[in-house]
Design a protein that fits this description.
Blueprint lengths: L5 E5 L5 E5 L1 H15 L7 E7 L5 E7 L5 E6 L12 H46 L2 H13 L14 E4 L13 E4 L1 H7 L6 H4 L25 H4 L18
Antiparallel strand pairs: 1-2, 3-4, 4-5, 6-7
Helix pairs in contact: 1-2
C-alpha cells in the first residue's frame, strides 16, 4: 500500500497542522521557491558601522537586505553610515510572506478536512438509513441463512454481524461481498476501526426488543434471528413483531 504523503508545518497563528497528499507537494514547491528568492547580496556598499562599544567598523552592507557581507576592512574616510533599519525590515517582510504561505496551506488543508468530514457524515447518514430498510434486512437474512448462523470468520461462534468486504457498491451488494461474522471476528476484519459507528454495519432492533435477543437468536420466537426476520419469518424484515422496552 502506498503511504499517503504528509508533512507537519507550523501555523504562524499557533500550533501545528499536518498537510496530506497533493497539498504536500504544492507546499514544497511554493515554500522552496520563496526560500530560493532570498537575497543574494549582489548589490553592496562599503559602510561604517559604530559598534556597541563605540568603536567604528568598516564593512560591506547589502543595499537590498541590509545584511553585513564579508569581513571588516581597514578604516576608510568619508564612508556612508550603516543602515541599521534595513535588515530588520527585510527580515520582517520575508517572514510575513513566508507566514502567508503557511497560513494559505493551513486553510487549504482545513478546507479539505471539512469536505472529507462532510462527505463522511453524509455517507454515514445514508448508510445508517439503508441499514434500517427491509431490503438490507432481507439481504442480511440471506447471508445468515447461507452460513446457517455460524461465523464465517472462525466457524465456531454464532454470527451476529453481516460484514461488507467492500464498500464500493453499498445498496447494490453482491452476496459474496457480504459475510456473517461474530463480534470478535468483525473487530479483526477492521484493524483500522476508527469509525466504529460507520463500520458497525448491521442494524437489529432486537437488542431493544422487550423479548430480548443476542443478535443470533430471537428471544420471542426461540429461533435463529435470521429466520425470525427473514422474508417468511415471524417478525419479517420489517420487524412487525418487535416490541420496545417498557
Amino acid at each position: 500500500m502506498v503511504e499517503l504523503a504528509r508533512k507537519l508545518i507550523t501555523n504562524p497563528d499557533g500550533g501545528t497542522a499536518t498537510l496530506y497528499g497533493e497539498l504536500v507537494e504544492a507546499y514544497q514547491v511554493e515554500i522552496e521557491a520563496h526560500d530560493a528568492g532570498d537575497c543574494k547580496h549582489t548589490k553592496r556598499e562599503l559602510r561604517i558601522k559604530i559598534l556597541t562599544g563605540g568603536g567604528p567598523m568598516c564593512k560591506e552592507q547589502c543595499l537590498q537586505c541590509g545584511a553585513p557581507v564579508g569581513n571588516p576592512v581597514s578604516k576608510q574616510p568619508d564612508l556612508p553610515k550603516w543602515d541599521h533599519d534595513r535588515h530588520p525590515e527585510y527580515l520582517a517582510a520575508r517572514k510575513a510572506v513566508r507566514d502567508a504561505i503557511l497560513r494559505k496551506f493551513v486553510c487549504l488543508q482545513a478546507s479539505d478536512d471539512k469536505q472529507f468530514t462532510d462527505s463522511l457524515e453524509d455517507r454515514r447518514a445514508k448508510y445508517q438509513a439503508y441499514r434500517r430498510t427491509p431490503e438490507w434486512q432481507a439481504k442480511r437474512s440471506k447471508v445468515m441463512r447461507r452460513s446457517d448462523g455460524l461465523c464465517e470468520g472462525c466457524l465456531e461462534a454464532p454470527a451476529t454481524v453481516v460484514h461488507h468486504t467492500t464498500y464500493a457498491n453499498i445498496g447494490d451488494e453482491l452476496l459474496f461481498q457480504l459475510v456473517a461474522l461474530c463480534r470478535p471476528c468483525h473487530a479483526r476484519a477492521h484493524p483500522e476501526h476508527n469509525e466504529p459507528e460507520f463500520y458497525d454495519n448491521d442494524y437489529l432492533p432486537c437488542f431493544q426488543c422487550r423479548w430480548g435477543g443476542d443478535g443470533a437468536r430471537c428471544g420471542r420466537f426461540e429461533v435463529p434471528t435470521y429466520l425470525a426476520i427473514g422474508a417468511n419469518g415471524e417478525c419479517g424484515p420489517s420487524f412487525t413483531a418487535f416490541e420496545g422496552l417498557k
